[in-house]
Amino acid sequence: MYDGGKIITGLVIGLAxxxxxxxxxxxxxxxxxxxxxxxxAKEAEKCxxxxxxxxxxxxxxLDEWRDEVVRDADRYYTSxxxxxxxxxxxxxxxxxxxxxxxxxxxxxxxxxxxxxxCWDCHIAPKESE
Amino acid sequence: xxxxxxxxxxxxxxTLLVLIPWVGVGAFDLRVLxxxxxxxxxxxxxxxxxxxxxIGWGRSPVPFRIPTTAGQQWSLPWIKANxxxxxxxxxxxxxxxxxxxxxxRSLFRNTRMEFRNGPRITxxxxxxxxxxxxxxxxxxxxxxxxxxxxxxxxxxxxxxLLENLDGFMQIGxxxxxGYQLPGLFLSxxxxxxxxxxxxxxxxxxxxxxxxxxxxxYFPLFLIGAIGFTGIxxxxxLKVDIVAVKELTMGLVSFHPTIPGxxxxxFYIHLxxxxxxxxxxxxxxxxxLGGVFLSPTRNLANNSRAVRHVNPWSYPVKTxxxxxxxxxxxxxxxxxxxxxxxxxxxxxxxxxxxxxEKE
Lengths: 129, 358
Prior knowledge:
Helix content of chain A: 40-55%
Helix content of chain B: 55-70%
Strand order of the largest sheet of chain A: 1-2
Shape of chain A: elongated
CATH superfamily of the largest domain in chain B: Transmembrane di-heme cytochromes, Chain C
Largest sheet of chain B: 2 strands, antiparallel
Strand order of the largest sheet of chain B: 1-2
Mean pLDDT of chain A: 91
Distance between the termini of chain A: 63 Å
Largest interface: A-B, 43 and 49 residues
Oligomer: heterodimer
Strand content of chain A: under 5%
Distance between the termini of chain B: 93 Å
Low-confidence stretches of chain A: none
Order of helices and strands of chain B: HHHHEEHHHHHHHHHHH
Largest sheet of chain A: 2 strands, antiparallel
Radius of gyration of chain B: 32 Å
Mean pLDDT of chain B: 90
CATH topology of the largest domain in chain B: Fumarate Reductase Cytochrome B subunit
CATH architecture of the largest domain in chain B: Up-down Bundle
CATH class of the largest domain in chain B: Mainly Alpha
Radius of gyration of chain A: 22 Å
Strand content of chain B: under 5%
Order of helices and strands of chain A: HHHHEEHH
Number of strands of chain A: 2
């Protein structure tokens, strides 16, 4: 090889950068953290909508609620799943059942690397422990 | 190849690549194949191919330094030389490489030659390719670094930092109710816009259209399709991000798993990325490694100061005049030809001859 020393050094640095996630993880399996349901949520058994929808679409629902409340003063939502009527509010409704924010919302969000800025203004539930 | 054929062909291949996982996962539930086997095979091919390419380039001799005319070469102390554009030492080369790799300097120099007002040549300012090329590559880099959130646990701080910068507008994909969360990442949009420009450039400029081949259109379409499926997943059709991360973490930790509840769209995205990895080392995309080994950029122009021996020079058997004369001196003298070195033994012999005569 010509200039072999330099080329191999460059190649090793390049590979180390590209393979960074493999070194960083170093074979440790990282399963998704368990989400804890509060006693209240367990009792309710069901979320506002189907679990599969909530998993992927809860931010859409929140966004719809926000606009409908703030722009149209439309404060009540009828669930397509149970037919129950819910007060459209992140603070009051969601966090009433999911009052364990750090063990529910945050576990997922930390794992997925999302950091909703909603809590800059909205008040997160007080948690004991 | 006709450009219509090239475009239709590349488009058809990308369409097929979308349909394969769609049918494979959607109809036949081949999740292990598309979620584990193909991604691993793709990554192995990518790294093996890249290393083989770089070593192949390393083994190719570059016998001569290729001075580029962009700057005055160093010659005499009182002639001003350009140390970066035409460097004589390694320091200048490093700077030149940094400008090239990070800022695409040689693309920046692009001008367009045109005839204006009769037979008068003008050189036009032409920075669009540089601008969109730069946008494309940096958007791609940001997207790749952002994707580390799927491949690391805990997620390193710089990923978070970059996400905040990328999403600083804090707007959604569309100003419509229900489309304002999750927040928009600008890089995705910039990437698609730049791909769009790079495609239109090939399509609309007659000269570039003439030299474009499927190998130029296909990567653009493939990257466009990857970006488009990614945007669909994030903002519109939604997939279960937490399950997706379980799958990707399984891949990087070598404990592969197939979590339930991940939609077909994700497998289409993953398959297209795998194809990009497979295709990478065998296509023009391998300039990822190649840019570091471009001889016009990475060699100091010291042809006058240092002797560079052509490594492929064949060891020619020479027979110099000295050797020739050595061999034939007797005969040359006999024939009365002039010789450079007077033959000593000849003189002795003639003395002997004269002795005999006496």
